[in-house]
Amino acid sequence: MTIRVLIADDQMMVRQGFTVLLNAEPGIEVVGQAVDGLDAIAKVAELTPDVVLMDIRMPGLGGIEATRRITGPTGDPAVKVLVLTTFDLDEYVYEALRAGASGFLLKDASAAELAQAVRVVAAGDALLAPNITKRLIAEFARVTRTHRAPLMERVGALTERETEVLALIAQGLSNAEIAERLVVAEQTVKTHVGRILLKLGLRDRTQAAVHAYETGVVRPAGY
After folding, report:
1. From the centroid of its chain, how far is CA 136?
2. What single DSSP character describes residue 157?
3. Which of 99, 117, 138 is the last residue of a domain?
4. Pairwise CA distance, residues 171 & 122, whole Å
5. Whole-angstrom Cα distance, residue 209 to residue 52?
């Protein structure tokens, strides 16, 4: 099936450039463009894309708040947001993922990396720019105990095996890699992942990874 993409960026040249790059990729179609966050929300409702490429800094309503509204309780759970930015700053990475983004990529990514990112996010997998990951993990590790306590209550609903799978998701392992690590069938892992998302009220693997770090299921080295 063709992956339908909406591009939200206040710079026309960026929108047009991404449109040309992605339309040249097999199985990907850019179905629309938005000039700011409010326009993105309206276009999502109108065009029902699979993936929204969302710029963080836009006039009016920014990308983080737009992402929060698109992926919130009243949004379409099938729509994934891939945040794109030129600003390699911790606070934006963390807040974008907290807002519900399924991935994060810098705008200097190559055409191949951009297309792959769209495919990964559309498939429901997590995506983070490699040069961001270390700082992101450090930010998660700074979450206070007060914030962590209520989140731990939901984690307590997981079985021992589901908690183990959640920790491996947070480490970036795919279903196949988790299956190999636990010596189980890949379909069994998929079942565990589905139950984890359901029990924790999460949209996708990215949010599961965020949740694992916030609750202390996974602790970065040195923290």
Report:
1. 13
2. T
3. 138
4. 20
5. 20
- In sequence order, the 6+-apart residues with CB closer than 8 A to the CB of 185 are 179
In a domain? residue 162? yes
Averaged pLDDT score across all residues of the chain:
83
Q: Which of 121, 138, 155 corresponds to the end of one domain? A: 138
Of the pLDDT bands very low, low, confident and very high (cuts 50, 70, 90), residue 146 is very low
Residues 131 and 148 both lie in one domain: no
Q: Tell me which residue range forms the domain holding 52.
A: 3-138
SS3 content of the chain, % helix, strand, coil (to 5): 55, 15, 30
Provide the pLDDT for residue 145: 43
In this structure, the answer to whether residues 120 and 150 fall within a common structural domain is no
Mean pLDDT of 205-213: 80
Tokens of 97: 């993922």
In this predicted structure, the answer to whether residue 19 has a pLDDT above a threshold of 90 is yes
Q: Which contiguous run of DSSP H or E holds residue 155?
A: helix 145-155
Residues 6+ apart with CB under 8 A from 103: 80, 81, 82, 83, 117, 120, 121, 126, 127, 128, 206
Between the CA of residue 89 and those of 93, 96, 223, what are the distances in Å?
Answer: 7, 11, 21
Question: Which one has a higher pLDDT value, 3 or 102?
Answer: 3
Per-residue pLDDT, averaged over 159-183, amounts to 89
